[in-house]
Specification:
It is built from eight helices and five strands. With 196 residues, the protein is an alpha+beta fold. The protein is elongated.
């Protein structure tokens, strides 16, 4: 049997494990002890989804079995939050320039900043999803007194309004939303996650 974690082959010794499920349970115990969580498993090249997990787990261990696990650690998530804070700070600088860029006819630069905003929020939400695996450490994140879900619930209408302003080519509203609504929220987001 071959066992890989994040692409690196491990030299493991089986104790009493006879099935794939027993190996995975043993591995998960080790993950928990090391503040890690498994976020994906592939067996012989096939991703193991929830609907086939029980079937795969019941299979016996064979010589040609290849298990690949993808794990994330608590520290990986903390580092991802720190990196996101740096990227968001840089983005805030770009977003504050949107009104000037639009007034000067540099709509392409302004739209590029707004596209970067969408990508950055998407990436941040992915980090938030990973942080839920370590709720003891990250479950207490507050942004201006709000939980992450409350913060994004309040932020979503502003982003929808920005999208509407872009579609209607309302450059004044686009600039105002970027500078006075979005940037302060992004700064608050940075402050909440930069020191993990």
């Amino acid at each position: 049997m071959e066992f890989y974690v994040n692409g690196q082959q491990l030299d493991i010794t089986l104790e009493n494990e006879k099935t794939v499920g027993e190996v995975l349970r043993s591995f998960e115990t080790t993950c928990i002890q090391n503040k890690c969580a498994t976020i994906g498993v592939t067996i012989n090249g096939i991703p193991v989804t929830a609907d086939i997990f029980d079937e795969e787990a019941a299979k016996p261990i064979t010589e040609n079995l290849k298990i690949e696990a993808t794990v994330v650690s608590e520290d990986n998530v903390a580092d991802a939050f720190k990196d996101a804070a740096v990227k968001i700070k840089a983005l805030v600088t770009e977003l504050t320039e949107i009104p000037v860029n639009m007034q000067n006819g540099n709509d392409a630069k302004a739209k590029k900043s707004i596209a970067a905003l969408a990508d950055t929020i998407d990436d941040f939400c992915h980090i938030v999803a990973m942080s839920a695996l370590f709720s003891e450490r990250f479950g207490t994140i507050k942004i201006e007194g709000k939980s992450l879900s409350e913060f994004f619930s309040d932020f979503s209408p502003v982003l929808q309004e920005l999208n509407g302003a872009l579609e209607s080519e309302d450059t004044v509203l686009t600039g105002d939303l970027a500078v006075y609504e979005i940037c302060p929220r992004l700064n608050a987001l940075c402050d909440a996650v930069k020191d993990f």
